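User: Look at the shape:
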Amino acid sequence: MKFKKASILYKIAEKDDNTDKGAFFKAGKRYDSVTMSNFFRYATPPDTYQRRFLEAVSNRQHLIASFPLGHPVVSLYALAGMMGNGMVVAVCPSGRQIRRNLEYFKSAGFRFPDVAFLDGTQMPHEERSVQKEINHNRVKLLYITPDRFVSLTFLEVLVHTPINFMVVEEADRLLPSTPGHAHYRRFYEEGLLQLRQLPPMALLIPPLPPARFRELSERLELPSYQSIQCPPLVEGVELQVLRLLTEHQKFMALTDKLSGSPGKGKLGKLDGAGATLIQTAYPAQAEKLGASLLDYGFDSVWITHFKKTPKEQAQILEMANTRLNAIVVNAGSDTRYWSPSPESNPRLVFWTPPASVEDVFMQVFRQTQSMQAAYGQQHVMKGLIFHTKEDYQASLKRLRYSRALDEAEVQSKSHALKHYRHWALSENCRLQSLAAYYQGASVIELPPCRVCDRCQANQGKAVASEPVFRKLIKHWIF
């Protein structure tokens, strides 16, 4: 009988967001993690993300799971959080994301103290009420922000309360090379490192290559871990690299691409509905390019960079996402939540060379998959990369004279930039190599995308090796 009920639970967990969540949770509260473990030992349903996630949690294993940004990850750990014997701690980057997750539980009929939160916005008596319920083991799932996690009062609670497992949303911010790391640095140094032993960790990250999985596990000193990785949406991207000679050529090519090649004397207007994100190298460059686009005639141009406060950056992205033809010019700001409306034709533009092939990969796949998760349908995103010899040399020069990097870091980043240059000048399929990098596979194992600029140029032609003389000339010019 117990197996039959557990089978019903599993089928409910497999359904989409239209499932009756109230029935799902009420059924789940009757069982504990032992029942879950026994069920997965004998059941034979298909291998899915949900099953693998719950298996790892029930077996108290560390887990690194890669899902698109905007994917309702709370639906993955909600069942395990309600069924476990102890408390589940979920770390979210901001109070806004905590409230978004709480809406999920409200629609299921769950209230305080089953689900509680501490984000630093509560009054002292409200915090004391939450801590009292935790001490009486009435809280099943506790949401908390990184800033609140490191407080001594909470760390004392964490030490004396049985923790079933810990969820960290957007755990890629724990890596120093990832945008948003400053927000998670104190959480890592003054929070996680203070614990004598980490509870089972469920690290939820956006699409990342396998090398970053290992780097994340080494940073947290996880002895072993299970991994879940969603496949990249290669068919949702059209990628093009424009190799030009001057800054003027770049600007004219950009305005032509954005405005649909207007005739001479016409001011720039976006060709139909289209949202554009332009990545630049530093704040002054973003301000200059944004002002030039406004002078040319484009309206709804938004400029954001790392010198603005996090609140200002979030407001700019939120305002830009509500407009069909908004242009966001960015320098160093975290744009992971740039998600244009479904009616737009999104474009992603690299005005200067990306720092590495991985930077291209993270921007391209992260944005396409977050839009797919947010709107439930696939959107073709046009990616455009400008490459000039002058920009490439300027990027190398900034690395070599950077005071914030030591010699080893300069060499590593310079090597990554040179690898990107080789990729940009290559005659091979753009997305084929990116997808292979993501999956840790060989390029010959994957088919060409047939939509990037190189596939279009090679269509109907026999694939042959590029003449050495032509290759040398191209590398010298660009």
